[in-house]
Amino acid sequence: MSLIDNIITWYSAHMNYASITALMAVESSFIPFPSEVVIPPAAFVAGQPESVLCATGNYTLDVLIIVLFGTLGAMIGAIINYGLSVWLGRIIIYKFADSKLGHLCLLSSEKIQKAEEYFREKGNVSTFIGRFIPGIRQLISIPAGLSRMHFGAFLWWTFLGAFIWNCILAAIGYVAAGQMDRIKEYSHELSVAILILFGAVVLYFAIKKIISLTKRQ
Length: 217
Description:
It is built from 12 helices and no strands. It has one domain. It has 217 residues and is mainly alpha-helical.
């Protein structure tokens, strides 16, 4: 069995909010680990009938709390990447990416450069959009740190991206559990979250446009 298979086996036997947070922190750092094997299975378990939950000892799991703790873990991992990038700097980060340990983490200077180019192209909002793109999601915090992006803005966009992504993964887990009625139960909360996200994006670009026009005058 591979390392990931062993972790998945361990996680199946120790599925709780602490393990969800820890694994999502790992997923969001430079260590390769798929969030798809963390949130959907937990949401699947939370979507089971109460009798099944009690039998497996997972009756305390709630899908909304799963999303919140998953988002917390994602932010912890992102902050680690951001902090290491600020502390170590570009030269050491690139050297680490091309080292044997970096390669074991599936890193390379090409991947870091790709993330930097994406960050330069999209700007600060890339820390939000990048959360939805495979191969960029785990690394987008590195160029944010290298460019010393405002930490408050970094936390805001990272939170939004991670929260929405985890909502999507949790919904997939619920569908797999055949709990469409419970998805409808939480549809209002998900709709509110999407509206807040949309409003934040519109506000960001509006402020950016106003600042740009002000500078031209």
